Amino acid sequence: MPKKKIGNFPFTKGIYKDMYQTKLWTMRQYAGFSSVKESNKRFLSLLNSGVSGLSVAFDLPTQIGYDSDHEMSVGEIGKSGVPISNIEDIKLLFDQINLEEVSVSMTINSTAPILLAFYIALAEEKGYQLKKLRGTIQNDILKEYIARGTYIFPIEPSLKLTTDIFEYCQSNLPKWNAISVSGYHIREAGSTAIQELSFTFANAITYVNHARERGIDIEKLTKQMSFFFNSHRNFFEEIAKFRAAREIWAKIVKNEFGIDNPESQLCRFHVQTGGSTLTAQQIDNNVVRTTLEALSAVLGGAQSIHTNGKDEAISLPSEKNALLALRTQQIIAHETNITDFVDPIGDSSIISEMTNKIVKEVLNKIDDIDKKGGMEKLIDTGEIEEEISNASIEFQNKLDKKEEILIGVNKFVNEEKIDLTISEKDDKNRVNSLIKFRKNRDNEKVYHALLVLEEKAKLNENLIPYIIECAKSRCTLGEISDTLRKIFGEYS
Fold first, then answer.
1. What is the pTM of this model?
2. How far apart are the C-alpha atoms of 323 and 442, rounded to whole Å?
3. Which residue from 252, 350, 385, 403 could staple onto 398, CB 3.0 to 4.6 Å apart?
4. H or E element: which one contains 465?
5. Do 218 and 267 belong to one domain?
6. Which residues, including other chains, have CB under 8 Å from residue 492's CB and lie 6 or more apart?
7. Per-residue pLDDT reduced to its tens digit, 219-237
């Protein structure tokens, strides 16, 4: 396939001249279920259904650096995604999947270096060429401190690990996005569209500055960065937001970092429909919400889209609902003719004026953050978190007063019973398999690999090669995390 022609600066109309006329967006469905085997089965099913990229959700213990048999993991194993504790888990997760042919996105932050190391170790064991691997590691730790809370270490060592990934990927994984700076979770926490873009891009500026201080080539780095946005309720505002995002990032890269390379200026982004817009009441309504949100992402020019299953306000989606969510994208792509046009409604005065307004407000807000000392300082003082919290409260007050309408919740309400029971899974097999894994490995080799990692963590070295060695030596995620906890401490 010929290389796609890049659009015109500042790329408001799209990062490519032809947009979807030559290639559709990647339909990347998010999956991760109570067991590794179940997740692999779902991945294979999604690939057979026409998905062109996989996106992995991990359970809470995996996100915060605990093995499944740790006391902190009780009751949380496999609840919010797949549990991964070692290289054998990753091997089973991607069983029968050619890693050189499928783009893989991993939504992981605190333990991103470890999950990436497991993935690289697996690829090397299977004989894949690292330069051919395509995918994204989220690796966006700053938003954890302000929106999600799945951090482990204090901010500075966390940023060091993030930068280690940049450096490693630049040398070894040229087709891999070393970070996906996420506004999605900021919006899910209750922010406005302006806050979503402002805080996301202010975080991105922080990461690039850290990379520049390390001596990393930021022109190459910005080619390996992608973004992750939310598609929310306000249809026109969301389209304008996506268009504005491209213009804002292009101007930041050109003006703040002095990079004239158009490929570095491109704001490549994945969009997921809004989880917080879904309701447990009248869940069929969620199909309509998701369709409109996906449509705004397409009209806004996303490179990659995930559509939520209608039951995600209650649980992880069933296979039937995950397939319906995928079909929603496929219908938009193949039955509407929207893809025949580049930026089809960008010339509308409503969209154009709204885009300009968002660009202006976001750039002003980023300047204000900089004047106050930057994101690291404002995260540490709690100012960012408080601002998001205030926006969330304001929206809830509007719902309570019916100034904002949520069908089935505060208007057109049906009397219905909602089953919110979450079935308890039997975690005994998972724990037993971990005990067996530890018993059958070379524990002398494990001890040595962890010892080397501990010593290197005390120095100012890139830790990714040593974490990969730990993965190959059959160290677990919890053991690697605990080794780094000893040196870096924990954030509170």
1. 0.94
2. 42
3. 403
4. helix 464-472
5. yes
6. none
7. 999 998 999 999 999 999 9
